[in-house]
Write a structure and sequence with these properties.
mainly beta, Immunoglobulin-like, Jelly Rolls, 3 domains, 6-stranded antiparallel beta sheet, 2 helices, Purple_acid_Pase-like_N, Fibronectin type-III domain-containing protein, PAPs_N
């Protein structure tokens, strides 16, 4: 802005940014003077507040923002208020006409060169397709989609509306994505949970889904029992016992217990055991073994480790008590007893019917 003269002060003495439709995108012609709109695209600035020594800032309003052409050329121009309302300034007799004059110039190398500063704040994401899956007695997964990259948060509790829950829980993943998945763990069994999904974009604009709900299952007790005797001979390689196999849910913790009845006619009667589970599981188990009401041997097994040799009585079945826990990984799968002779012998080692395994969700 190089100069201004504002004698008239009747409420129409302002500068307004409006849309324009010039004939050319690169040159101005005489016919362009009236190819302008009247609707304000920014804040109006009163001529009394116009500065000639620095930039005057016009900030796009919602109308102006909606007229931005993101994949083309956006055209704006300026109009003086009397021109907008088609009302000439008052002229006082005697030759002292009230005047409003504004002149602008583009002068390279000066502080008055026109400039455009665009600050674009990405709008809040749009959340869709909110779902729950993999609901167990202690966990659930909430998934949803957004139209732009944003982070993931689930706010949940056992009271509706969820914001009134006490305690109120949150699970967050700061990874920016359009496909969101948040796992909720350590939930109470047989409980109804209410939740909302929240996604925030890098500009800090957030969207919240409508409230959803799910109900965890009651704590499950799984049992399997061996129905026939099974023997092996001349074999020290652990094999899975298909009758002593439990199918466990993903992302779930279980207490494990069981009893193995074992017998052998071998000259060196013994057995070794271990456990196998789906990838990602954490296994901690142990055993006590004995016969005749006395337990003489025990061992703690970490992970899928194989036990030491467990001695078997030559005169009566040996009882092997199993105790421990397992935390499954992200996939449903089997937890299975494996066993074999520890010392290879032609006389067989037998795991007897009535042996069992049990898993209880915790």
């Amino acid at each position: 802005m190089l100069a201004k003269q504002n004698v008239e002060d009747d409420g129409n003495d302002y500068i307004r940014v409006v849309t324009t439709t010039p004939a050319s995108n690169t040159a101005i012609t005489t016919a362009d003077y009236d190819q302008v709109g009247t609707t304000s695209q920014t804040n109006d600035i009163d001529l009394g507040n116009i500065t000639t020594s620095s930039y005057n800032t016009f900030t796009l309003n919602s109308t102006g923002l909606s007229n931005i052409i993101v994949d083309g050329i956006t055209k704006f121009g300026t109009r003086e208020g009397h021109d907008v309302v088609n009302s000439a300034p008052t002229v006082i007799s005697g030759g002292n006409g009230n005047q409003i004059s504004v002149s602008t110039a583009e002068e390279s190398g000066t502080s008055q060169d026109p400039k455009l500063i665009v600050v674009h704040a990405q709008p809040a994401p749009v959340i869709s397709n909110v779902q729950t899956s993999n609901v167990t007695s202690s966990s659930a997964t909430v998934t949803w989609d957004t139209n732009i990259n944003s982070d993931s948060k689930v706010t949940y509790g056992t009271t509706t509306p969820v914001t009134s829950s006490n305690p109120l829980y949150e699970q967050t993943d700061e990874t920016l994505t359009t496909n969101h998945s948040v796992n909720l763990s350590s939930l109470s069994s047989g409980a109804t949970y209410y939740y909302v999904a929240v996604s925030t974009n890098p500009d800090g604009n957030a969207a919240t889904s409508t409230q959803g709900s799910f109900t965890t299952s009651s704590a499950e007790v799984l049992r399997v029992r061996k129905t026939v005797d099974e023997s092996t001979a001349n074999d020290t390689t652990l094999s899975s016992d298909i009758e002593l196999s439990l199918t466990l849910n993903a992302n779930t913790s279980y207490l494990i217990d069981g009893v193995i009845f074992a017998s052998s006619t071998s000259a060196t009667p013994d057995i070794k055991i271990g456990f196998d589970a789906v990838n990602g599981s954490v296994i901690d188990t142990g055993y006590l073994a004995g016969s005749g009401g006395t337990f003489r041997q025990g061992e703690w097994l970490s992970g899928e480790a194989t036990s030491s040799a467990i001695s078997i009585s030559a005169t009566e079945p040996t009882v092997i008590q199993i105790h421990g826990s397992v935390r499954t990984g992200s996939s449903l799968g089997n937890f299975v007893l494996q066993w074999a002779q520890n010392t290879s012998n032609a006389n067989g080692t037998t795991v007897m019917k009535g042996s069992y395994l049990r898993a209880q969700e915790i």
